[in-house]
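INPUT
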Amino acid sequence: MKSILEVQHISKEFFIGGEKEPYMALRDVLSNPIKRLKQPPKQIFKALDDVSFQVMPGESLAVVGKNGAGKSTLLKILSGITPPSSGKIICRGRIASLLEVGTGFHQELTGRENIYMNGSILGMRKAEIDKHFDAIVDFSGVDRFLDTPLKRYSSGMQLRLAFAVAAHLEPEILVIDEVLAVGDADFQKKCLGKMDEVSKSGRTILFVSHNMPAVQNLCSKGVFLEKGKMKFSGKVEEVINLYMNNVDASRNTWEVNAEKSSNVYIGKVETEVIGTQPKQKLRINTVLNVNDEFPASYLAFYIGSIDAVPLMEAIPRYEPFINFGRKGNQAISVVSEILLPPMIQGLYTLGVWLGSGHTNTLDWQKEILTFEITDSPMEGRTIDFPRHAGFIAAEAAVTNYSNT
Amino acid sequence: MEYIIERQHKFSLGLKELIRYRELFYFFAWRDIKVKYKQAALGFLWAILQPLAMMMIFTLIFSRGLRVSSEGIPYPIFALSGLIIWNIFSNGLLNSANSMVANANIIKKIYFPRLIIPMSSILTALFDFCFSLLIYIAVLIFYNHNTDWLRVLYCLPVSIVLTVMTTLGLGTFLAALNVKYRDFQYVLPFMIQFLLFVNPVLYSSKIFENGWLAWVMRLNPIANAINLSRSAFTGNAIDWMSVGLGFLVALCFLLAGVYTFRKTEAYFADLA
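OUTPUT
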């Protein structure tokens, strides 16, 4: 089978430093050609650097990366809004993009008029819109306000209407960018359901989102971008792990990246998983940098899942025990051990809190480290736990069994 | 269906795409018209009232006051026959030159053939023209001036085609430049005011019978369109040589405008 989308060595360059404004005043061009010559040479910024991947028909591909990784630029090139500087893309189907829903909505027009306007901008024929009109209105749930100008809609209603129009596009390839960032939980669920339906109907989806559970639900494959370069392409689980882990699979040391002026702060943290299940321990070495006098303090550790769901808190000594000694160049090292419950294999995050009292935080570094549990939490079980099993395999026993 | 996205190297008009998206012309024009008259109590009446008011003011000042020659026809007819052409040009040019910047939020988000935007904003100007045509006919009947109706029937469409070609050429050219240099946004209203006096809207082109200004009038497509639409009442012989020159100039404008637009449109999203 031929792929529906082939991205071949795509790069996109921008000039930076030359002009402050993206558009110029004619004055600057006409006057002072000498000044223009004297300007520092423009720097080239590569928003995308040699990105290649393929998508097969019916596949849902996630594009994942931190802010500024080049995701939006990639989608803009894919939907033809801006051309690549080099490389090419072969498309074997119509692409429609939902780069921010509601594009082309006009506040003065009514809901009905906006459905037609928005639909046709998105590439629908009038006949197509007519055909889907009832379904669109039904999905959006704004039928009572259909002939009211959009400016009287709540922002939630506008969003619902916008997504409803977009959801009824019938392209072979649908590009979706951050649609789930807004809207209430109920509507988000509806949107996810609709997208799931679209992908099951055999259409190809390119999905960009920071919502990792949604990415995992919707996509089977993914690409991971970092600073314009493609770092990884493959199974979506691995892509998500990469995203969550700041690229390294497991980070067991963390150091503050610049010296701080506060009296005391967390300077370095190291972790190590020791022992075997079910008596595994997490050993944590915390180094505090001291500049000046501080109140007696203690530490707390926060363990969470890789997609930032908080799981547990551990306080090795519940009383202020870390004391100020002397000014300047003092470093305090605290080694603690946490007895871990039977945790399911996978990556977890660790955060460190330092404070002198419950409401008096001196430093709090969230999700700075990751550690991996490789042992099975259940004796005798080697097969993987599914995601819906949660994170901890609770100890359990059969206390009575009768078979009569 | 297979197509390739890459950096464009050779020039193409993209006609096939324009035809595929033809419905969008209508939708953009329809939106602009709707929005324009939506909250006005008098609504579409304004499309009639504006040229009517202009005609009355010009008649007062130029005919009663300054006693400008109107080649022997009632000045209201004289002014209106020029004004309806002039309004297509000035409104069309103003709309289309600002259209890309005004629709920047859409351009940055969704792809469609960009030429649709300046083109449909001229469609909006033509819509207003249809209303002013009603006034035009009413004035003609009111004055009962001996009108060569047959001539109106072929002169008016030709002069409209000439006007639309010129407007489209200049409009697309300015729309493309406006994305990069916002200066044109400020220059344009001033420029249009200036052009009103350069074109024989309020006076007869006969006053420049000789010299280089006469040549400017002959090469000027808008002046030609106005003279052509007027000739049905003045009974002047049509200078087809001059009309031909006007068309040639309009064609040059059109080619230059569309060429510039197509050349730069790929980067509108980066610049807007």
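end of record. Residues 149-180 of chain B form the longest helix (32 residues).
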